Amino acid sequence: MSDQPENAIRKIIHIDMDAFYASVEQRDFPEYRGKPLVVGGKPDSRGVVATASYEARQYGIRSAMSCSKAYQLCPTAIFVYPRFDAYAAVSKAIREIFSRYTDLIEPLSLDEAYLDVTDDKLGIGSAIDIAKSIKDAIKNELNLTASAGVSVNKFVAKVASDMNKPDGLTFIGPSKIKAFMEKLPVEKFFGVGKVTAAKMKAMQINTGADLKNLSESQLIAQFGKSGKFYYKIVRGIDNRPVQPHRETKSVGAEDTLSEDTNDLATMHELLKQISETVALRLEKHQLKGKTVTLKIKFEDFKLITRSRSFPVAINQAGIMFQEAIKLLEEANLGTAKVRLLGITLSRFYEDIIVENPGSNQLEFNF
């Protein structure tokens, strides 16, 4: 198989907002600017960091870390609760900027999306120029910064967008993909989590070049169906189209605790934040669902799920949160320690909840 990526004529941009929640807070509140800011809760609330400003990251503060740990790292940091309604409004404005250039937009979350600009609306032609124009519009109109990755497929564009944060723009053309992927550390591969990266390193697979030495069958034997994906992407092959109208079968979110725990208060705090994230994603897709599923991963990586269905479809964060707590209690965890929690909503029907919220207004009980 050739090392050259297939479908090299496509022009794909991945836009990723820089420290999105924290940047919106610093924009809206001048007293936060230039200071370490933690979005997620108070340091004594057992909350989890949703986003940290770049000033806070210099102290080692990262997303999913407990707020108490963040406080230990930087006692002078400012701690605030998220304002999800404000972030959703900004996300909508960002999406409007994208739509000036293309209708092929695939949102991944409130703060990132793929754009296919192979045929752009304004006839600009250059994907690099389009990415620059989008970044300039976001900065001038919204007073925020974004980083962009430009390439011939989604995978490489996404990796590229993370190369020069914040406010970066990285182009990886067809002739550069082979060398780029071979030098890339395995932990930088999108889709390779901490556990998989650790397994790879234990196998002396540290870079894309090392990964490339394994055959497709060897990768499948070691990593299951993901092995086929790794085999292709390390060669720069990713033919997935940008899907603006892909069918959504479920919407969910999950987060890893900073430390394995059996403390219910800590788990409840994390579930509350996860339910807020799911609610925002439901709003983005204009969806309601009837089945709530709780995902629990233990310290030994054992995984269980618990589900319950409602007679009517729901989308409210508060309802999902309360149901997740009930499912957690019914799981009878005892003294078992938990490392990850997740909430998923499925069995959808579409309902317009963005243009006319009415009684469907999302609940943010902070």
From TrEMBL:
InterPro entries, per database record: DNA/RNA_pol_sf (IPR043502), DNA_pol_Y-fam_lit_finger_sf (IPR036775), DNA_pol_Y-fam_little_finger (IPR017961), DNA_polymerase-Y (IPR050116), DNApol_IV (IPR022880), IMS_HHH_1 (IPR053848), Rev_trsase/Diguanyl_cyclase (IPR043128), UmuC (IPR001126)
Active site residues of this protein: E112
UmuC domain: residues covered: 12-193
Cofactor binding note: Binds 2 magnesium ions per subunit.
Cofactor: Mg(2+)
Source species, domain of life: Bacteria
EC number(s) per entry: 2.7.7.7
Transmembrane region(s): none
One of the protein's GO biological processes: SOS response
Keyword entries, A-Z: Cytoplasm, DNA damage, DNA repair, DNA replication, DNA-binding, DNA-directed DNA polymerase, Magnesium, Metal-binding, Mutator protein, Nucleotidyltransferase, Transferase
Pfam families, sorted: IMS (PF00817), IMS_C (PF11799), IMS_HHH_1 (PF21999)
Signal peptide (from-to): none
Gene3D superfamilies cross-referenced by the UniProt entry: 3.30.70.270, 3.40.1170.60, 5' to 3' exonuclease, C-terminal subdomain, DNA polymerase, Y-family, little finger domain
Binding residues annotated for Mg(2+), in chain numbering: D16, D111
Site (Substrate discrimination) residue list: Y21
Record field: catalytic activity: DNA(n) + a 2'-deoxyribonucleoside 5'-triphosphate = DNA(n+1) + diphosphate
Principal subcellular localisation of the protein: cytoplasm
Gene Ontology CC annotations of this record: cytosol
Record-linked HAMAP family: DNApol_IV
NCBIfam families: PRK02406.1 (NF002677), PRK14133.1 (NF010731)
Record-linked PANTHER family: DNA POLYMERASE KAPPA, DNA REPAIR POLYMERASE UMUC / TRANSFERASE FAMILY MEMBER
Quaternary structure and partners: Monomer.
Function: Poorly processive, error-prone DNA polymerase involved in untargeted mutagenesis. Copies undamaged DNA at stalled replication forks, which arise in vivo from mismatched or misaligned primer ends. These misaligned primers can be extended by PolIV. Exhibits no 3'-5' exonuclease (proofreading) activity. May be involved in translesional synthesis, in conjunction with the beta clamp from PolIII.
Family membership: Belongs to the DNA polymerase type-Y family.
Protein name: DNA polymerase IV
Gene source species: Pedobacter petrophilus
